Every structure is written in structure tokens, then in C-alpha cells.
Amino acid sequence: MTGRDQILEAENEIRVVLDQMRQAMHDRDAKRYYSHFVPGAMEYDLAPPLGHEIDPKELGDWMNGWDGPIDETPQDIRIEAGSELAFAYGMARVDVKRGGEDIVWWMRRTTCLRKTSAGWKVVHDHTSEPFYMDGSLRAATDLEPV
Amino acid sequence: MQGTKPDDDSAIRALLERWAAAVHARDMKTILEDHSDDIVMFDVPEPLESRGIDAYRGTWDLFFQYSRGGENAFNIISADVTAGESVAWCNCILGIEETRLRLTVGLRKENGRWIVAHEHHSYPLKSD
Question: Among A107, A123, A130, whose Cβ lies nearest the Cβ of B82?
């Protein structure tokens, strides 16, 4: 394979991993979600603190705080892949329900991966909301892509 | 895979230090150096994303509406660099004045030189 073919193959493999993570999120299966991460992987999460190691119990509790599936729909994920490291980034729409109410937000996600003997695994993941600069420093959870 | 090579680690750290020093000096030309034309920026303020080097420059124009620069304006408090042959990333804790935020930088190597292709700056949501 040429270098270009290898990169395309890596991108395809990573898209499959990201799809499987979204399916695990939909199914609210924290253990399966984190099976795509290396042990001790780091997350910069929507919520505080600044950063933390992956914690299946905490993620499971968060997942169970919603009624039914957590659906993340990515828009235009871009992937920068080498032979052993890659990062993927894009915006995503999240749809959840709580107390009969539909809740929707857009966020940004950057996922850094390493190729291991067991395939591509997440080493670092960063999700966030931008802020309004109107002095309120409110999280801009109602923005949509322009 | 092999771990990050010392040369790559030091080149990426030097890039980040030059960049932070340029913010202190409000030196836009140097801020934009080592950044790709197709950079995608996820910044602290809205919008969700800024695509391309011109939009990236615009995020710094906005920053300097709020910051006079100086040594507390923008500092890399800690940086964890992971580099391969052609792709690298760096997870940082940033200091902007007295606040602390997160920064993930994605880089690629072009013609033997590391350039920044993606930045993601954020504060966590306020806990209620």
C-alpha cells in the first residue's frame, strides 16, 4: 500500500471506531463506550473538572440521568491520521430526553487516538461548548453550525 | 509504536512557547506562524468553529479586544506532547490571567516541520 492508501485505511478504521462509540453512547453502555479507550485515557469533559481520567461509573451515572438514548449526530468530522497516531474533530448535535422534555445541544469534539495491537484506541478526548461574549459568560448551548 | 522522539517533543514545545510569547507581545504575525491555512479552531467564545487561517486570525482580533497582552495574558501551564512520524497532539492546561482552561492542539508534519492544524480551547461548563 502507498502512504496515501494507508492514511485512507486509517481514516476508515477510525470512522468505524467513532461510530461504535456513538452506538455505545446511544445504548448508554459506559463499559462498551470506554472499551474504545486506552486505560488511563484523559478526558476534558463538558462539565468540571478541567480534566480527568476515564471513569466508567461516573459516565454510567451521567448516562442513566437521561430518559432513553443519548444520540450524538456528528457534522463533517475531519481526521488527521498518520501510521500510528491520529486526531479527529468536528461539531456534533446531541439529542436526549429528560422528564418528557426533548433537550438538544451542539458541541465540539476532538478525539486523539493511537493505533494499538487491538486497533485504534482513544488516548484523549475533549468536548466543549463555546461561551457567549455578551458579558454573561453563559455557555452557548443553543448555537447551531453556520 | 515508539514513544515520542525527544526532537519532536522539544520542537513542539518550542512552537508553543513562541506562540504564547507572541500573544504576550500582541504580535499577530508570529501568532499565525506555524499554523496551517486550513486550520480549524474551536475557541472559547462563539461560534462553534472557525475555519481557515483568516477566521483564526479573527479569533485573536477578538481576544485582543479583551486582553492587552502581557505575561499573564496567555500561558501554557502544562503540556503533554504525543508525537508520531507525521501527526502529533498536545494536551495543555492554559492560564489566561487568573483563570485556567483546557487546550488540545493537533499538529501535522509538513516538509519536516510541525504545523498546527487544529486547536480546541475551552472552559468546562459552570457547575450549578
Answer: A123
Closest Cα in chain B, distance from residue A117 (Å): 10
- Each residue's pLDDT tens digit, A70-84: 999 999 899 999 999
Of A49, A89, A106, the CB nearest to B40: A89
- Contact by Cβ (8 Å): B105, B39: no
pLDDT digits (tens, 9 = 90+) for B57-83: 999 999 999 999 999 999 999 999 999
d(CA A35, CA A122): 9
Q: H helices of A43-118, where?
A: 56-64
| Residues forming beta bridges with residue A108, ordered by sequence position | A91, A128
Contact A110, A88 (CB under 8 A): yes
- Bridge partners of A87, per DSSP, are A80, A112
Q: Is A13 helix (H, G, I), strand (E, B) or coil?
A: helix
Q: What number of other Cβ atoms are within 10 A of residue A40's Cβ?
A: 8
Burial of A56 (0-12, 13-18, 19+ CB in 10 A): middle
CA distance to A94, A101, A127, B96, per residue, from A70 (Å): 7, 13, 15, 34
Tell me: pLDDT of A135 over 80.
Answer: no
Contact residues, chain A to chain B, C-beta under 8 Å:
42, 44-51, 78, 80-87, 89, 91, 106-108, 110, 112, 114-115, 123-124, 126, 128-133, 137, 139-140, 143-146
- First-to-last alpha carbon distance for chain B, in angstroms, is 43
